[in-house]
Design a protein that fits this description.
Layout lengths: L7 E4 L3 E7 L6 E6 L6 E6 L1 E2 L4 E7 L6 E6 L22 E2 L23 E4 L1 H4 L5 H5 L2 H7 L3 E4 L3 E2 L12 E5 L6 H13 L3 E6 L11 H4 L4 E7 L2 E4 L7 H18 L3 E4 L13 H15 L5 E4 L21 E3 L1 H12 L13 H10 L7 E2 L4 E2 L12 E3 L4 H5 L13 H13 L3 E5 L20 H13 L19 H5 L7 H4 L1 H16 L1 H4 L6 E5 L4 E6 L6 E6 L4 E3 L13 E8 L14 E2 L2 E4 L3 E9 L1
Parallel strand pairs: 9-10, 9-22, 10-13, 13-16, 16-17, 17-18, 18-21, 21-22
Antiparallel strand pairs: 1-2, 2-6, 3-4, 3-7, 5-6, 7-8, 11-12, 14-15, 19-20, 23-24, 24-25, 25-30, 26-29, 27-30, 28-29
Helix pairs in contact: 6-7, 8-9, 11-15
Length: 623
């Protein structure tokens, strides 16, 4: 039979074809398990290929069959490293899945557009009380109505325990059984497409989790000691016997696009994916994903996290780059957070929260493009001044930044409501592609802590490691009487679940997000996301102005992060209306309908008065 992917179990008319890479072994067989219990029902020997793969057709084996692999004389039966489903978790048997069992109803969804995206990051397990794909589906219509265009699901690959963030996945082809079946996930994506929502998947190709990963038993060449990885053994993308390793990850990326109809990927921590090959493996992944989507008449969106701010994120594979559409921009979040909280500790040290830093992050993306970075004691970043503004993903909150705050607090607890409203307006109207973190749109009180249900041996080690990481923040060191919520306790996980009744209780916050996203979508000055047509100037140490130049009329975004002030004199030419025009107010973050304290109109016959901690949006209109 013709295989669709290089590894895994693929059912066909005569049975199921299996293929696994086990170069360290001489013999391999498929062992069939009973659906309930662990009793073996039979085995099927596989043939060894010169590449170190073992393959063969097991006649009569149908979807739903539980199986594993036995190697050489080892009595243990191992789950398939390319298992499509692990109904009993990563240590249990794998299950044969029919990729055609679910029939997609929305078959003409084109995928995400190049511009105009609003991304919404969510963790399936905490997004709803039930923590399932099916439960998450009921919120899709409201997210679309809010103005979200793209859902970004935190990692789904099977991981150990009953809860976790997903970044310690070990079965990269198997969506976690904790959230539902593979067909449940497909139904969620299908329902999202029916609401005109794209869905992208956060994938972890830089390491495997510490428990439930069996690769070393039969394929030690999956790993390398040539590089130091922050979270375990580095993966072998450029050493001896690497062809099958690269093929495994390239095919995995393509699999999510082909079989689940995901609309793209978010590549986690790409600075920890080491590859000195002529063509970087991430470039191969991006190219394979795009070809798969194009074959189905769709386009995909690929974004990358890269802490070192490597310019390859934005370069094509032919230029040695990763070929991504966008890169996460921590620099904007960091300087915005300092502006909101005044804290410059740990990795916020190199950020001032000044108007100039905010302006530069909005216009140019990364703040550090090769300058010295004092927190790390070396240069950081590479020049990306030629990269369009919409190719940077900006955020005020995401899973990491919320969890790294004091006790997983949201920004609603860390700054004043008016200051947060002002910054939210600035962020959502800026030309970068915004990313919201679940519940942010209604001021969710649920914190987002680090949680991971590891076994009794690993749990204290993980908790200690998490505590050591957080000691870089002087404000949350143990000597201040602050204790870390135990990542392995279920109460830590449960505390992170959203309370959807807050959407109605915090109606002012929700209305602000609705109005800002509607303005971003409908007003051409904001919708076109043209950073090169944006002019900006500092007004003083806490106030600044952005002028969006547009054929349909200029727009002003006037931001005051300080106290009430009168601009006298107002000696900044960007504040002057075009000839024969005046400024008309479109939106104020301090409007009472957003739970603001009211505001004074900022512009009156050439005079400027700025309400404390506010953002005002104005449009040029002919007089």
């Amino acid at each position: 039979m013709t295989r669709r992917f290089s590894v895994g179990a693929e059912p066909g008319a005569d049975g199921t074809h299996f293929r696994v890479w086990a170069p360290a072994c001489q013999r391999a067989s498929v062992v069939v398990r009973e659906l309930e219990g662990e009793r073996e029902l039979g085995s099927h020997p596989l043939e060894r290929e010169p590449s170190g793969h073992f393959s063969g057709l097991a006649n009569g084996l149908r979807p739903g069959t539980l199986y594993g692999f036995r190697f050489d004389d080892d009595p243990k039966v191992y789950p398939d490293p390319a298992s499509r489903f692990q109904p009993r978790g990563p240590h249990g048997a794998s299950q044969v899945v029919d990729p055609a069992a679910y029939r997609f109803r929305c078959t003409d969804f084109p995928g995400p557009p190049e511009r105009g995206q609003v991304i919404y990051e969510l963790h399936v397990g905490t997004f709803t009380p039930e923590g399932t794909y099916a439960a998450a589906t009921r919120e899709l219509a409201e997210l679309a109505k809010l103005g979200v265009t793209t859902l970004e699901l935190m990692p789904l690959a099977e991981f150990p325990g009953e809860f976790g963030w997903g970044y310690d996945g070990v079965d990269l082809w198997a969506p976690s059984h904790l959230y539902g079946s593979p067909d449940d996930l497909k139904a969620f994506i299908d329902a999202a497409h029916a609401q005109k929502l794209s869905v992208i998947l956060d994938v972890v190709y830089n390491h495997f989790g510490p428990a439930g990963c069996y690769f070393e038993r039969f394929a030690p060449d999956f790993f390398t000691t040539r590089y130091a990885n922050e979270w375990g053994k580095a993966l072998n993308f450029d050493g001896p016997n690497t062809t099958a390793v690269r093929e495994f990850f390239v095919d995995n990326a393509r699999y999510w696009i082909d079989e689940y109809r995901f609309d793209g990927l978010r590549l986690d921590a790409t600075q920890q994916i080491f590859d000195a090959s002529e063509r970087h493996v991430l470039g191969e992944i991006a190219m394979a994903v795009r070809r798969s989507a194009q074959a189905q008449g769709r386009r995909v969106f690929i974004s990358a996290e890269n802490e070192s701010q490597d310019a390859r994120v934005f370069r094509d594979a032919e230029q040695g780059g990763f070929g991504c559409d966008a890169g996460w921009n921590d620099d904007f979040q960091h300087t915005a957070r300092v502006a909101l909280t005044g804290r410059r500790e740990a990795y916020y040290h190199d950020y001032t929260g000044s108007p100039q830093q905010l302006i530069s992050a909005i216009k140019h993306g990364y703040l550090f493009q090769g300058q010295h970075y004092f927190q790390q004691g070396k240069r950081r970043g590479e020049p990306v001044l030629d990269v369009a503004a919409h190719r940077f993903v900006s955020y005020l909150e995401n899973h990491d930044q919320v969890a790294n705050s004091l006790a997983g607090k949201r920004l609603t607890e860390l700054t004043s409501p008016s200051l947060l409203r002002a910054m939210t307006a600035l962020w959502l109207l800026a030309p970068a592609t915004p990313l919201l973190f679940q519940g942010q749109e209604f001021g969710a009180s649920a914190r987002f802590l680090f949680f991971a249900d590891h076994d009794a041996e690993l749990a204290p080690l993980v908790q200690r490691g998490r505590g050591e990481f957080l000691t870089q923040f002087p404000s949350i060191r143990p000597e201040h009487g602050i204790t870390l919520d135990a990542p392995h306790e279920r109460a830590t996980f449960e505390a992170c679940k959203l309370d959807w009744s807050e959407r109605a209780r915090n109606a002012g916050t929700y209305r602000l997000y609705q109005d800002l996203l509607a303005l971003r979508r409908s007003d051409p000055a904001f919708a076109e996301q043209r950073g090169e047509r944006l002019e900006a100037a500092c007004l003083d140490e806490r106030a600044f102005v952005l002028r969006f130049c547009c054929e349909q009329g200029d727009r002003l975004v006037v931001v005051n992060l300080g106290p009430d002030r009168v601009l006298d004199p107002a000696g900044e030419p960007l504040l002057a209306p075009p000839a024969g025009a005046t400024w008309k107010l479109l939106l104020s973050s301090e409007d009472v309908k957003y739970d603001g304290s009211s505001y004074q109109s900022p512009y009156d016959d050439g005079k400027w008065t700025l309400t404390a901690e506010s953002t005002h949006v104005l449009r040029a209109e002919a007089t």
